[in-house]
Amino acid sequence: MERVIKFKLNKNVMVLLGLLVSCSSFAGTLLARGPSAEGVLREEESYPESRFGQQPKAPELGVGRGYASRAVTEMEARDEDLDGAFGGERNPAGLETKPKGPADLELAARNPPRTVPAPSAPRAVEGTSARQGVQEIALIAGDLGYFPKTLFVSRDVPVRLFVTGASKNTLCIMMDSFQVRKQVRSQKIEEITFTPTLPGKYRFYCPVNGMEGTLIVKEFSSAILSN
Which residues pair with residue 175 across a beta bridge? Predict the structure, then answer.
């Protein structure tokens, strides 16, 4: 009986020792120190080191900080040297500062400057010779009336009026001041010619459907300005 108890105790002790050995080896594995970052960086020396928050180096341009100031100083010194070489003060180009001598005055008296005559104003032509031509106007006669209702012409210039019939019915156009009485047939264009001689407002109308319009005759000059 005692042998059995000793055997069990020895067996338990061996198991505990085995557990302690395995735990110590596992802890050593966890606490083992890995390779340092410096060793890794030494093996990869061909790659640049980058640290967060560190400002990158300025590019090498081959020009120092004082290069610009030295260049400006040298340019100002050259300008001062040039001013001293050419008399100290610069004169505007193309301006002659020396007074004219007797020879220059005599030459100017022999060759006086030529005067260019001013352009003469065009002569005003009176009568109808300055107003040659024909005024052509288009007018539409429909069921709703004339379009446009107001026509503008110049006096003493022949007027050629083209009236188009836009209605299915036969309409007309009458101007008592110019002895105009013309029928306007459907889908046809009627041509009327007259010459107004006095400025003013003249009425044209059609008694078939009661439509009417106004012809305004202006002076030749006022008509040009209004256009």
Answer: 180
Question: Tens of pLDDT along 20-36?
Answer: 766 666 555 545 555 55
- Please determine, for residue 124, whether its predicted confidence score (pLDDT) is greater than 50: no
Residue 208 is part of a domain; what is its CATH number? Answer: 2.60.40.420
Helix, strand, coil % (nearest 5) of the chain?
Answer: 35, 25, 40
75: exposed, middle or buried (C-beta count within 10 Å: 0-12, 13-18, 19+)?
exposed
pLDDT tens for residues 125-159? 343 334 568 999 999 999 999 999 999 999 999 99
Let me know if residue 140 belongs to a domain. Answer: yes
Is 208 part of any domain?
yes
Q: Has residue 167 got a pLDDT over 90?
A: yes
- 3-class secondary structure for 122-167? CCCCCCCHHHCCCEEEEEEEECCEEECCEEEEECCCCEEEEEEECC
How many alpha carbons lie under 13 Å from residue 210 in its C-beta half-sphere?
0
pTM of the model: 0.42
Reading the block at residue 188, the tokens are 């046809």
Name the one residue in this structure whose structure tokens are 């400057």.
Answer: 113
